[in-house]
Amino acid sequence: MNEKDMLAEMFSMQTDLNLRIGVDTLNMDEEQQKIWILNYCRAMTQELAELTDSVPWKWWAKYQEYDKQNARVEVVDLFHFLISLALVLGMSAEDIHSLYTRKNKLNFDRQESGYTEKDESDNKNL
């Protein structure tokens, strides 16, 4: 199975899970979309905090340990919410792959050109 197929499978699995817990991302009106975009952003913020807590970031505290397994689980939790967010925005796995590919090329082009000033107008053409 190639990466594109794996991503499509993850989107399908997440759709099923969302429906199981009562969140129908495919049939939301614009007001519901705004609410769920915020819900998923907040959830991802929390998951990022939990990921941060998996590494010893408190330089003053000697009791902390690196919990690689928990860090890996938190990354997967982020994917759950990120895929749900993409679904709310009407994006498929194919949409993500296509936009990622174009944005990745743009990022390389920016590096080649020096990218010395912030100008995101080139994002509008993606």
Describe the structure.
By secondary structure, the protein is mainly α. The chain has 2 domains: 8-91, Helix Hairpins; 93-126. Helix content is 66%, strand content 0%. It is built from 4 helices and no strands. Helix 1 (3-20) packs across helix 3 (68-88) and helix 2 (30-52) runs antiparallel to helix 3. The two termini are 27 Å apart. The mean pLDDT is 93.
Principal-axes shape call: globular
Reading off the top of the CATH hierarchy, the class of the largest domain is best stated as: Mainly Alpha
The SSE order reads HHHH
Low-confidence stretches: none
Proportion in β-strands: under 5%
What is the correct CATH architecture of the largest domain? Orthogonal Bundle
Number of helices: 4
* Total domain modules: 2
Sheet having the most strands: none
Oligomer: single chain
| Class per helix and strand makeup | mainly alpha
Overall strand count: 0
N-to-C CA distance? 27 Å
pLDDT averaged residue by residue = 93
